[in-house]
Amino acid sequence: MKALVVSDDVGSATQLHEVLNANRRIKECVTRPWRTLHEVPSEQGDQYHIVFAVIDQNSQSAGQQLQSVRKKFDSFLVVVGHADSSEDVIRLLHQGADDFVDLRRDMSSQITELISSAKTRIGIDSTPQNVIGVVGAVGGCGTTTFAVNLAAGIAQNRQRCALLDFVCQQGDVGRFLGINSNHSLQELCANSSFVDGTMLERSMSKSCAGLEVLPSVGHYGDRSQPDVSDLRHLISVALEKHDDIVIDLGSCREVQGYSSILEQTTTILLTVRPDFSSVCRARNALDYFKTLGLNDETIEIVCSRMGMPGHLEQKQAEKILGRPISHTLPEEISQVNHAINCGVALVMESPKCKYSRALNRITHSLLERNQSEKTQDKKAATARETVGLAQRGVQLIKQTMGCFYL
């Protein structure tokens, strides 16, 4: 979303510009003084989705300023100023404004709420948000390897992705990526009441291709666990800055203590090895997910290490699971170990190996499905809005005809 700020007040314009740049939905923000507004070419009038006009609503030229912006830009127009009364705001709306931001209140919260509502009011579709939870049926399923490479693959496609390590006692995400962070999951959970989007963003370690990582640094013998509410808060805060989040949840045994976290995910990827013990544990996990009331369509099975000696055939595994396997990953132990030893994601180190190609197919499948669901939701919302407008039109016609006959 592109935004334009029109203002002669340097202080207000600077404050507004900083707030807009901090909002992840604003991709570009430009500031212009009122005197240069006429210099904007007419063909550029529709390139800004939203225009913020900083004015003094008590001045006699306020109405003329709004009209000049409205003629120049076919955009969502927001007036920024001081509201002495509700009548002032109503007058501005009558003069052509679509919304109002009060400089006397917290600007950040107002802008966040305004942009969130504006994208539906003016038909701007936001980037779909993905919260992907990766769970292993048992240990040794390659859960962390898969989570790290999936996050790196998403970051390659979407320029940015957050990777959270929720294996609180012995998480390996940081080690797999060679990250020695000064901040960890445990530290943020201990101070969760002070954690906001900016603090979380600064606490995460930057890795390859736009991947941002929050590692876990649990120690042997440390049985303390972060509170579930703190972990849920971290996910909510991460969504303020990221459209895509991958969470390494460890094995199903560890997830049982954090079952409510699964409710915040849009997709659950259950990793399983192609052996009898692992497949049976995966079936138990699926039954457990069902007792939690999770949507079965959001759960996908990923069979890793395909090609192991003596492994079950895919059809045999699917018969035990009672459902098809959504994705498979080949066994490439030497390539995976080399990437781990180098502290890089395999999709970055060896993008053409079989594992990387298979993982890229999974990445594209997840992103395309989420985009398709978003499009369907938008069409349904548009249809409901059209029906509502038609019904209100019929009611208005009936009222008008009734007045005519009277």
Characterise this structure.
With 406 residues, this protein is α/β, with parallel strands linked by helices. It contains 15 helices and 13 strands. It has helices spanning 10-22, 62-72, 86-94, 107-121, 143-158, 173-176, 185-190, 197-203, 228-241, 252-255, 276-291, 314-321, 333-342, 346-349, 354-405; strands at 2-6, 28-32, 50-54, 76-81, 99-102, 130-136, 161-165, 205-206, 211-214, 244-251, 267-272, 299-306, 327-330. Helix 5 (143-158) packs across helix 15 (354-405) and helix 8 crosses helix 9. The radius of gyration is 26 Å and the shape is elongated. It starts with a strand and ends with a helix.
Descriptive terms for the model:
406 residues, alpha/beta, eight-stranded mixed sheet, five-stranded parallel sheet, 15 helices, 13 strands, elongated
Mean pLDDT, to the nearest integer, reads 82
- Give the number of helices: 15
Helix vs. strand class: alpha/beta
Q: How helical, in percent, are the residues?
A: 40-55%
Going across the biggest sheet, name each strand in turn: 8-9-7-10-6-11-12-13
Summarize the structure.
The chain has 15 helices and 13 strands. It is α/β, with parallel strands linked by helices and 406 residues long.
